[in-house]
């Protein structure tokens, strides 16, 4: 099943294409006087999209005052019988990533508007179910950027075996997910430094609350992921990133390096 698979020569070409799509939807929302929620992962995969979205914001003079960044996950630490975010200043913190590599990058592109700190959202590890309620009350996610784990197909922190009806929750990270994150955050000294748990949006959260979505895969390391994602006909719990097949307005966006193992 290869429809809605888009291949680009480079990750920058991919980022430019996706950024233009996102900017179109942002512009429509602005013209309608509505808010816009961008669902975001951290890590290497979406960086070219965020950089190119900043260019689109500057060129189109888009207003950011009603834009929300909704992050999909974060590492957590035990806090008695509950959980808390890892410190926001550690190199692998998704809160750090959101503020430094998304919010600041997009805000710098606008001369007259900005995304305020209270419009950068994260799931609360002490009360994760509240995130689905908050996103639902806001009308859902207008455009969700997604990425697949290279080795096990995790999406956000949803491990293989995640139920289709799972929602935002704290999960134990699969070992392969932790191994994949050694590459995402090279500052880790070893696997022992990678936290064992994370708070994450669920499969149902992504499927039911995304109005549009793009699954991104870049680089030779994502060849297996592209093969699994392009062949999927629906959600496969053995490769959770296949959830994108459950979203009506979604596609798989890959660069040549990642797509070399299949022909769209």
Automatic annotation (TrEMBL):
Any single Pfam family the record assigns to this protein: Glucosamine_iso
Domain Glucosamine/galactosamine-6-phosphate isomerase: 10-245
Keywords: Hydrolase
Alphabetized SUPFAM superfamilies for the sequence: NagB/RpiA/CoA transferase-like (SSF100950)
GO biological process: carbohydrate metabolic process
UniProt keyword annotation of Zinc-finger present: no
Top-level EC class as recorded in UniProt: hydrolase
Keyword Endoplasmic reticulum among record annotations: no
Enzyme Commission number, as recorded: 3.5.99.6
Gene Ontology terms for molecular function: glucosamine-6-phosphate deaminase activity
PANTHER family (alphabetical): GLUCOSAMINE-6-PHOSPHATE DEAMINASE-LIKE PROTEIN BT_0258-RELATED, GLUCOSAMINE-6-PHOSPHATE ISOMERASE
Protein name (record): Glucosamine-6-phosphate deaminase
């Amino acid at each position: 099943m290869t429809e809605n698979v888009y291949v680009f020569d480079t990750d920058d070409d991919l980022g430019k294409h996706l950024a233009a799509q996102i900017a179109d939807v942002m512009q429509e929302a602005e013209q309608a006087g509505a808010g816009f929620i961008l669902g975001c992962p951290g890590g290497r995969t979406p960086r070219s999209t965020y950089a190119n979205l900043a260019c689109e914001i500057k060129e189109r003079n888009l207003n950011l005052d009603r834009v929300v960044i909704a992050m999909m996950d974060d590492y957590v630490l035990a806090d008695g019988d509950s959980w808390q975010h890892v410190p926001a200043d550690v190199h692998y913190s998704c809160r750090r990533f959101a503020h430094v590599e998304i919010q600041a990058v997009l805000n710098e592109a606008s001369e007259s508007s900005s995304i305020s700190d209270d419009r950068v959202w994260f799931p609360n590890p002490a009360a994760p179910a509240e995130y689905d309620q908050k996103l639902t009350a806001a009308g859902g996610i207008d455009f969700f950027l997604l990425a697949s784990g290279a080795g096990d197909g995790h999406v956000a922190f949803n491990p293989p075996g995640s139920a289709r009806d799972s929602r935002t929750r704290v999960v134990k990270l699969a070992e392969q997910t932790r191994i994949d994150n050694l590459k995402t955050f090279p500052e880790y000294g070893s696997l022992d430094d990678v936290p064992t748990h994370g708070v994450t949006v669920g499969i149902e959260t992504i499927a039911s609350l995304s109005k549009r979505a793009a699954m991104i895969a870049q680089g030779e390391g994502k060849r297996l992921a592209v093969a699994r994602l392009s062949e999927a006909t629906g959600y496969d719990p053995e490769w959770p990133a296949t959830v994108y097949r459950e979203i009506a307005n979604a596609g798989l966006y890959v660069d040549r390096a990642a797509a070399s193992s299949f022909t769209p």
